[in-house]
Amino acid sequence: xxxTSTLESVSERQTRLRPTLDQVYIIAALTLIALRPLLxxxxxxxxxxxxxxxxxxxxTGTIPQVDLFSYTRTGEPFFNQGWLAQLLMALLxxxxxxxxxxIVQALVLTLAYGLLLRLCILRTNRVRMCAAILLLATxxxxxxxxxxxxxxxxxxxxxxxxxxxxxxxxxxxxRLWLLPLLMALWVNMHGxxxxxxxxxxxxxxGEAIRRWREQGIPAKSLDTSLIAWGAAAALATLFNPxxxxxxxxxxxxxxxxxxxxxxxxxxxxxxxxxxGAIFFLFVIVTAIVLxxxxxxxxxxxxxxxGAFLWLALGATRNIVWLGFVATxxxxxQAATLLPPASPRRFQGVPTMNAxxxxxxxxxxxxxxxxxxxxxxxxxxxALLAKGTPVAATQALQKLPQxxxxxFHAMSxxxxxxxxxxxxxxxxxxxxELYPHDQWRDYxxxxxxxxxxxxxxxxxxxxxxxxxEEQKPLLEYARARPDQWREAYADAETxxxxxxxx
Amino acid sequence: xxxxxxxxxxxQQTSRALLPTLAHLYGLTPxxxxxxxxALxxxxxxxxxxxxxxxxxVAEAGIPRTxxxxxxVPTNQPFVYAAWLGDxxxxxxxxxxxxxxxxxxRNLLGILAFALVLLDAWRRSGAWRLAGLAVFxxxxxxxxxxxxxxxxxxxAPFMAYVIILGAxxxxxxxxxxxxxxxxxxVFWVNAHGxxxxxxxxxxxxxxxxxxxxxxRQPDAPDLRRLAALGATAIAxxxxxxxxxxxxxxxxxxxxxxxxxxxQGLVNEWQPPTVRSLAGQAFFLAxxxxxxxxxxxxxxxxxxxxxxxCAFLWLAWSGMRYxxxxxxxxxxxxxxxxARPSSRPVPQRGDLFAGVVAVALVAGVSALQPPLKPLLALxxxxxxxxxxxxxxxxxxxxxxxxxxAAYLRxxxxxxxFNDMAxxxxxxxxxxxxxVFVDTRVELYPLALWEDYLAxxxxxxYATLIERYGIDRALLSRSRQAPLVAALANDSGWIVExxxxxxxxxxxxx
Lengths: 501, 508
Hints:
The structure holds two protein chains of two kinds. By secondary structure, chain A is mainly α. Chain A is built from 23 helices and four strands. Chain A has helices at residues 5-15, 21-38, 48-60, 83-124, 127-142, 150-153, 155-169, 178-186, 194-215, 224-236, 245-255, 257-262, 274-292, 299-314, 319-335, 350-367, 372-375, 378-381, 390-398, 410-419, 436-446, 451-457, 471-478; strands at 406-408, 462-466, 484-489, 493-498. In chain B, strands 1-2-4-3 form a four-stranded mixed beta sheet.
């Protein structure tokens, strides 16, 4: 059974306020995890419409069941599955504005990956190696998915599931009763709750095979505790406003062609972009460690790795889950390549260690959202990412005659929903809300194809265009000053209204 | 009595020695399945017909060096026909057996290549069952690469390199075996651009074996064996110069690998994903391989690990490389799954196994071009093929046989055509002048963008005016938007149409 001595000794020494080098490694890992969200400006795509929905829930006390924000699909049913996360986001914003959102984002990620680090250390008794693997392999693999949105809020739940199941199967603890509680939260925050069942299912199969091989009797191979608590977790999914309908929502989402065809993060990873290359490099590194490890991996670990690798191969957005399940496997197998851990390994000079921890604390302070705008360049110091049309939206709101049927970039739709709720949008990142034909028209219009037909089809009377994404359409409009007049322009966005206004 | 018994047993032993064993069937059956898969695969027009025409020109007038067939770029624009020998060989097969010849060559080359995969897997694992599994998985990963084209000529050289270098690293053969590699490279460099994979294999073996020697690993080569490997690499590199353009062949390969239209627009150059059947087969086999690496009873050597990583990365970069990865890696999978001390156990020949082997050979033979049309194959399968009188059930149904015949009888005009159709027109028309064809690197990116825009009927009237197009041979499936647009355009009339293609003419 894996030892817990390292974590115990770490915490024991911590109480004496004489920090060890192991503690520095742990704190450094957690600090670097926190710094990434602290130093990442919030991108508009999948943030603002969630905030706006949360605001509606706060103000009305009800969860919207139909589209409230677009003029193309207004009144159409829309399943608002992540309502609890949306409510939380809006509440945080009401209390502390964007800085509090960013701080909570950092805390959530630190909690999730802190749980993962703890799990790895428990299994290997190697603090420094686990911190290195987490920082050098897992985090680069996962960064791309660390945007502020409901999905991030369930990372600790996934890590919690993984921890509970791993500790249970390795005999470290019996806390399966936590699974239904975690699931009751998860099902109200994000559609990824089905991955909880994937974890339970794979662990169940892996352990059944292990027991079968050890005991040779199939009937005795079944883990009744896991079955019972798994069933309780299944029942817990009913604790949501739409009960069993939530399963239909997930099925529809996964089968939605506009989602899988049009959204970049739903497309399979390839080595032609940097995140895909990191993913495939991670797979190769894991394979090499598996080849040369001095012992065979745990079957359940390997099954989890295989299942989530397949999931990640299907869509870039699933890579982050692979990071969670692959890291313990990588750590346990890499540990076999190292000489046995010495209980008296070098722990540094306490004063120096304390100084290093102080330095890390200063980094956190500099990276905090209240300090960083004043000290750091906008690429990391801004709270909002480039591409958030703040000034353009204000200009739009000041127009004497506002367009009623505005065409705009998809991400702008998300921001408009929040910042100008009276301005109904053409489209926004609620991908599954809009039919495939509308998405096709959106893309064609942005590319300047069949412009007149499409403008007429949707009766467009204004445009808020992204110069980077919709240049052909902008050129079309600029070439027709008799039809379109520029009402506002900056380096990223142009607002156009009909010339006759 | 004893002498009599022994003498009586001898003829029986000898006759049995000629028979396969039951264990052999584990290898032969998957090989027969893959051979059948190859024989059943239709040949698409894309990458075959223009090569056959080049083969004809090579045979009749020498190796060409210019465009010749497209009106959208200058006729004398330089173009490297790097696969001239593969083209010439296909043409020789054509002279020998008509249009059935090249497909028969593809089938035989496929059987040879996968037989070599079987041999390599058996060499590594010592188990025919595992060797059979390796062949089956490698075959499944190749399903997107089974069309008839010059790459077929490179399959066997690639596997020969893999086997010879692997056996040399494993001390199963001596340095004399390496002597085969440079002459083989002379063939390969003239048959297909994939010859660089041979150099890559040699380089990886040199690096891997040198590292093993430096790390003093068990069974690592000594300096003498490593020197032989290095000398072979140098001789093989020199052998690549034996081609019509000498060292410029590397410039051609580099241009191809960095050519934006090829890399960006051609399907088989795109990275594999799980959204296609071939991609699923590839990634499933990769998962199986990772599991075998983790749980297997035998470890891969450092050199094997290097090879595996390099070819895995290559396969991830483009679907067209998956076939090489499958051939190289699946024998390694067999090795990982084999028992630690697995050695071939001598088995007696078995009459039943002999009968089954003959049945397998007969079954595969029946699927070959001269006999295939005689089989009662189901109608949906027959519908996959073009109605070529001399070559039934060989070439895919979207080969524009009827449209090309019409164009032969009614020549003229500035023709816009589907890319794959361009390939067939180059073969079938006496003086072909196409808009584009599958010599992708011949055409500039801007032309390809216009080609795609036209196919999607984006601003088609302007583009038609710009190029002065007055005829259009379109694929109903690949260019449906333009087919629909011209159908509704009163300026165009239908000259010819069939199930797959349609030919429009502009009314003046």
